């Protein structure tokens, strides 16, 4: 299966955050790699999207959507950073 | 605490931070199809008039949702070929075999149809014209600051319909009369598969700051100097700005294309942080 | 603000009483994955069951293939609204694999090569309801469909039929697996439409 980039799921994530979280830098709690979520590898299927660390492939976050609800899990992220200026 | 805030306040804004600054807020909008035309035998260009569209930066995308009479919905992402503050949004859609949404957009959609779109989306894969006012005033004050702010050259690398967001960047560059050196490598199957062929040729002919390199993978025009074939590492090395010029590189195409190109760029000395990719799946 | 898109019909609507509510019939076999497809050589493959005492029952490929094999004809139902009717599999029944396993625990976490997990009640695995399948439609199971071997629990949504399964660990409580932690239902009965939390 072919992965895409974190920026591909900016749309559904816009329902959760007031800014584009794919531009936020996140730290993988598996290997410590630090990069924008837009640079994560995204495996998308109708069941949901899985963001994996571009360095170690660990699961960073998940996105599940039903007709009337959506879930964002970020079990593999130890911290995210936003830029204030 | 006060020490910490002082330190933050004196930190110069980095180039990527400025590039990411303040894109318009995403929302759901009703788009009315204003014009359609064939882009290639397999693709269509759709011009949408989007009520309430806040404008978009070059390189952004939108999500488009179709709803069937039984309530079933299908949502897909499409790169935007246009940019700026207007409410006109241009898409170019390649028809995927066995696709659910793209055949509908390419074959069924008519002028006047209404579609739901969510956007603008994705503030990472964007390019903005350089603020030359800021450059000049920084230059007036201190030479060091001017060189820190000097725009880095831009290399665009497109595979097939991956041209769409990169075409938006090249157009934004030309319309802003931006002096940043731009170079585009566009890999396409045959001359008949070129998206925005006229516009790209015009850009290449009229702008000193935009250079276009084409690679044909299946069939070349008559008299083309190179045989048809996929982009190789050697061809890439010959056609992209060298790592020593520290270009920002935008790569868009199928996942396989982007993977190959990105790994060669790293081998050729480009810093991974200077490479921005947008894969759209497939092989 | 959703409105119907002129001319868009969406999916086909073949009706069949074997289809649970909200399901659509497909004739192909869609591939759903949460990550890269692991390549597992049967020479290195191993399957194990781990109990609360730390006891481990394990089988290598040769030992596994020496167990009695079931032919399974069944319908499968994916939570993403597709169902496939009359699929044929070969595999080892979980009843066979649990024959000598002593446990007081009622729940199981299935673990896969590649890190995927899914939780199941032991009751949903025994009495001829579940298999470790290694053949689909007369062919060795393709890696993208979970080969060399996957769990097959056809009476639950198909995310419970863990691809690339490598082991089952007994649990005292029903704890959520990968998708179950992130929005999906703990149990997943398609006839009750147990799709999400």
UniProtKB/TrEMBL annotation, chain C:
SUPFAM superfamilies registered for this protein in UniProt: Oxidoreductase molybdopterin-binding domain
The Oxidoreductase molybdopterin-binding domain, residue ranges: 35-179
Cited Gene3D superfamilies: Oxidoreductase, molybdopterin-binding domain
Region Disordered, residue ranges: 1-22
Name of the protein this chain belongs to: Sulfite oxidase-like oxidoreductase
PANTHER family membership: OXIDOREDUCTASE MOLYBDOPTERIN-BINDING DOMAIN-CONTAINING PROTEIN (PTHR43032:SF4), PROTEIN-METHIONINE-SULFOXIDE REDUCTASE (PTHR43032)
CDD domains: arch_bact_SO_family_Moco
